[in-house]
Amino acid sequence: ISYTDGRGWHDAVVTPYAPIELDPSAMVLHYGQAIFEGLKAYRQPDGSIGTFRIEANAERLRTSARRLAMPELPTELFVESVNQLIRADEAWVPDAGGEDALYLRPFLFATEPGLGVRPAAEYRYLLIASPAGAYFPRGVKPVSVWLSEEYVRAAPGGTGAAKFAGNYAASLLAQAQAADQGCDQVVWLDATERTYVEEMGGMNLFFVFGTGPDARLVTPSLSGSLLPGITRDSLLTLAGDAGLPVEERRISTAEWRTAAESGELSEVFACGTAAVITPVGSVKSTAGEFVIGDGEPGEVTMALRDTLTGIQRGTFADTHGWMSPLG
Ligand code: PMP
């Protein structure tokens, strides 16, 4: 779908996947106005197809657009575009019963040619789809993380709460640093004090203190510089359903380490659309390394994972009305 100032959204079309033409001075290439979303379509046991919290993705794209001075795509257009693409690619939606799904990537970028720095007057909204296999083909395994003290992902007043392409570009060097340290993922800290935990790679973080009936969850509050994940929000609700107390607050790396070493912290996991829930097994920084729990995925982590994937795959009751059938 194209957008032109004064004319609005126009020329929606579904076409076979192919390269697109872009003017060399298209403003996205110079000033980076580019935002995106990520969501999945799941085959249900009766053969139908459902999407998970699609309106929340539509709403987040609009929030990202406002932050980047871009036009907001109306929610109905977003939902219709996703549904049309799924219908066109229906054969690519994997069968029910497995871990696979169809991943959808809606994105919006500035196409207007021009070298002056200002919000563009022309944009394109595109949507591509790709089958996504199990994130963990050999079962869920805890990841190791590197605390990024040198680089930050987002600063107060910046673009961290938007799903903005530049946030990911800025994160690549820290990811490489994490890999050099032998870690799977990078954990971001707050930009001001480099003390408080924000998020992990493309996922939000949860901490489980205590075990059994004493278990309680802590997740970093939405500081303005971390992405409000839809999985994070869903898990806050599901934890409430399960009677698990949840605190949204700041959590420091010192608290993380002390609680892990005393055994009070029993589990840590990260969550997002791609991997759903990933346990975190060990943490490394310039101050050394520590482990969480016994190196196996924890009970709370796996129970929340089963509930969420059950709802998405139609094997658990969708009591919050999160699933939408293809309209
Ligand atoms: N943080 C970042 C930086 C991300 O890219 C993502 C993935 N969209 C998330 C968190 C998790 O968000 P969601 O649960 O909506 O996929």
TrEMBL record:
Pathway listed: Amino-acid biosynthesis; L-isoleucine biosynthesis; L-isoleucine from 2-oxobutanoate: step 4/4; Amino-acid biosynthesis; L-leucine biosynthesis; L-leucine from 3-methyl-2-oxobutanoate: step 4/4; Amino-acid biosynthesis; L-valine biosynthesis; L-valine from pyruvate: step 4/4
GO process annotations (BP): isoleucine biosynthetic process; L-leucine biosynthetic process; L-valine biosynthetic process
Pfam families per the UniProt record, alphabetical: Aminotran_4 (PF01063)
Alphabetical list of CDD domains matching this protein: BCAT_beta_family
Span of the signal peptide: none
Keywords: Amino-acid biosynthesis, Aminotransferase, Branched-chain amino acid biosynthesis, Pyridoxal phosphate, Transferase
Cofactor names: pyridoxal 5'-phosphate
Family according to the record: Belongs to the class-IV pyridoxal-phosphate-dependent aminotransferase family.
Protein name per UniProt: Branched-chain-amino-acid aminotransferase
